[in-house]
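Quick start: read one record
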Amino acid sequence: MKLTVLVESLWVLGTRLILRAANLVVFMILARALSVAEFGFYGYVMATAVVLSVAFDLGQRQSTAFFIGREPENRADYTTHMLFMWLVLGSAGTLACWLMLRVGNYEESYGLLILVGALNTAPMLLLRTGQGAFLGAGRLDAYNRSELVSRIVMVTGTAGLWLADGLTIAAALWLLLASHATAALYLLWRLAGDLRPAALVDWPLIRRMLRHGAVFAGSVLMMILLGRIGIWLVSAMMGEEALGVYFGVLRLGEMLADVAGAVGLVIFSHGVRAADPRESAQDAIRTARLVTAVMALVAVAAMLVAPLFLWLLLGSAYADETLPFRIIMLGTLFGCFNVMLFPCLSAQGLARVGIWAYGLGCAVASLGCWLLIPPLGLEGAAIAYLLAQIVVASSITLVYRHRFGFRAGEILLLQREDLAVIRQLAGRVRARLGRRFTGG
């Protein structure tokens, strides 16, 4: 196994853990400062903006990364045209988000705040798409910092407003917009050296980027939808109060998958530059095994103390929802494998696998929610989420077996060689620390 992949994965993993800790602080404060219904609306805005930022990306994050990784000499052309397309797509995405929030019947209760929520779509889209240039060039430091900026604004702003007794739903949404806008401006600053306006407008290049991104767009959209279907259906079938509770327990569980997703981006970044597809797949599998093992330890600990965990992090209004939380945590472990193994396939031009794998998962999630929410409530939505993630994991495992010859046990279970990798990595860390302290 190439230690470079694991080392960079651990670096990004560490950064993402800091981000999740920041998100958790914000999450805990919002859950206590807002009513359950307001928290549900906040979650609805976030879910809708996230899905639309993915949908209107049109696969350009992955397409930009792919072409820059394969044609580094043309990096400026691809980066410039990616930003040119964002100007149009960001406006369309914002309009779509505003319309969806109106259709969700939130305008009567929240008025112009739905517009504030919708405006998040454009900077979220810019941040998402623009990071493709960092991934393609292997600039993981710039990627990490672009992620950190919005969290710094969110944590400091949320804590400050809470201490000043000014954290209302309106303030929370304005702060959300400010955090995304600040991160987007930082990204533009980091990309400024890669822009070449004189290259505009190369329509054949745009068509090439859009055509290549189309497959990525479908698969990534299905990936994001899988976790958001439950939010929309709980809102439609159970109302705002239930949505607030479901959003709370779902986001706590999904934080593990979010961390694993960052490792998936490292795998993708290496994959678009790899010469040997099978070796790249083997590195992805080994990294996924190690990271998921760590996630499993965290998940089991959280499940064992679920009542206390929910009470501490979300408050007493959420503490009784231990069963949905535990079910979602199980689903998240399968989700961790999915978000790390799929990027390797998409980096090798197999993004279409995600369309049918995640598409099948979305179908299971939708059907499961429709059938299970009426008799079981939030437990039904959680079971649907678990089943959907299992279906996706099974599908991706079959692809790895068929294309690369890896057995299911090799993919899913820790192997003896993983321990050797851990020892080798620990040796490198000790050696580096020794040189630092001895001045060598």
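The mean pLDDT is 87.
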